Amino acid sequence: MVISPIAVQQEPMVPVSTPSVSAVVPIYNEVESLPHLIEAISNILTLNCITYKIICVDDGSTDGSTELLRQIAATRRDVVAILLRRNYGQTPAMAAGFKYAQGEVIVSLDADLQNDPADIPILINKLYEGYDLVSGWRKNRQDAALSRLLPSKIANWLIGQVTGVKLHDYGCSLKAYRAELAADLNLYGDLHRFLPALAFIEGAKIAELPVRHHARRFGSSKYGLGRTLRVLMDLLTIWFMKKFLTRPMHVFGGLGMILMLGGIVIGGYLTWIKLGLGESIGDRPLLILVVILLLTGLQLFCFGLLGELLMRTYHESQNRPIYRVREIIGTNLNSV
Ligand code: UDP
Ligand code: MG
Questions:
Q1: Which atom of ligand 1 is nearest to 93's Cα?
Q2: Which is nearest to 89 in space by CA: 181, 198, 212, 226?
Q3: β-strand 105-108 against 20-27: which pairing, if any?
Q4: What b-and-e string marks burial along 252-271, b requiring 16 or more CB atoms within 10 Å of the CB?
Q5: Ligand 2 centre from 305 Cα, in Å?
Q6: Domain 20-243+322-335 listed as CATH 3.90.550.10
Q7: 110 lines ligand 1 (CB under 6 A)
Q8: Cα(230)–Cα(188) distance, rounded to whole angstroms?
Q9: What does the pLDDT read at residue 320?
Q10: What residues are neighbours of ligand 2 (ion), with CB under 5 Å?
Q11: What is the whole-number distance in angstroms between the Cα of residue 173 and the centre of ligand 1?
Q12: For ligand 1, what atom is nearest to the CA of residue 28?
């Protein structure tokens, strides 16, 4: 099979400084793409005088990618291979890559050559305009219309509404991050799709740039329609984290109080009927409602209290501040 070369930027794109970059690539059964990908990343970064490491995370591949990676990493100084014990999924693979990344900038991209490494210097350039995260936008996305593009359009709209971070394309893996931001991001579930939203919660400045996108040349996609539901569940988590991470009592406690108040008012009304008017209330549906309102209200209230405890454990066990400082200017804090 003849392989057309990946478009290579002719002019160096990062003239001012030469940052050191880690390119993080999650790999699951991409044996045919791998050599082309590593060549393409290496060519474009060398051309732009960027010092780099390619952090390849093998996510339990079974098609020979693991063996190939072993060989490549043993012979090339610019490739680091991290072999996971089994297939964990794209998010854990990316998290592993972030953990072992070096340098000031981290760039993430897919291994299947759908992202174009030639876009990496453009993203880095944008990052150095003063952003913490630059996200790719697959303006001309080359995937199936009905099964991929439509769910993705709906998901992108929903994510924008819920998280308040307005991007066109959350699903694009091609992104550039400042290393210190990536270190602050804790990934679970399928949350790599929500990295911009998580970064926004951490106070990051975010930009989006159109990037190239190619149809898959080798292998097949690892996802089907099933991921739509997972995205929705993750979206709920993100919404909650963004709004109430540091104050769970406000949502659970508040809701519990409203329900209990309703129970008390209706209960008062029933008490008046029973004691004031002397009527029987044993067969009134309202009585059941009062019981349900009071019990669920009390439970939600207790959830709120538990949430407060958990939140304190979450922050304090990891020394995780509830704020992020961008810069401190003018005071030598050590001499105070
Ligand atoms: N991937 C992974 N672990 C998985 C599934 C996928 O590391 O369990 C990697 C895969 O090798 C690719 C990237 O995640 O580099 C994106 O996967 P894919 O191209 O199948 O997703 P799509 O582009 O179809 O959304
Ligand atoms: Mg892909």
A1: 7
A2: 226
A3: parallel
A4: bbebbeebbebbeebbeebe
A5: 43
A6: yes
A7: yes
A8: 12
A9: 78
A10: 110, 112, 114
A11: 9
A12: 11
- Lookup result for tokens 């592993």: 96
Q: Which value, in Å, is the radius of gyration of the alpha carbons in the chain?
A: 26
State residue 53's pLDDT score. Answer: 95
Q: Which of 110, 222, 187, 178 is nearest to 324 (CA)?
A: 178
3-class SS at 2? coil
User: What counts of helices (H) and strands (E) characterise the chain?
Assistant: 10, 7
pLDDT for position 145: 75
The pLDDT assigned to 1 comes to 41
Ligand 1 binding pocket includes 205 (Cβ within 6 Å): no
pTM for the full model? Answer: 0.80
Point out the residues of the chain with pLDDT beneath 70: 1-19, 331-336
Tell me the residue length of the chain. Answer: 336
Query: According to DSSP H, which parts of the chain are helical?
Result: 33-47, 65-75, 90-100, 120-127, 150-163, 179-184, 195-201, 227-244, 248-271, 285-317
Domain assignments of the chain as residue spans, ordered by start? 20-243+322-335, 248-317
* Burial class of residue 1 (count of CB atoms within 10 Å of its CB; 0-12, 13-18, 19+): exposed
Q: What is the three-class DSSP state of 251? A: helix
- Nearest ligand 1 atom to the CA of 29 is 11
Antiparallel, parallel or unpaired: β 133-138 and 175-178: antiparallel
Q: How far apart are CA 258 and CA 238, in angstroms?
A: 24
Q: Given strand 20-27, what is the order of strands in its sheet?
A: 79-83, 51-58, 20-27, 105-108, 175-178, 133-138, 206-211
89 CB within 6 A, ligand 1: yes
pLDDT reported for residue 303: 94
Question: pLDDT at position 21, please?
Answer: 95
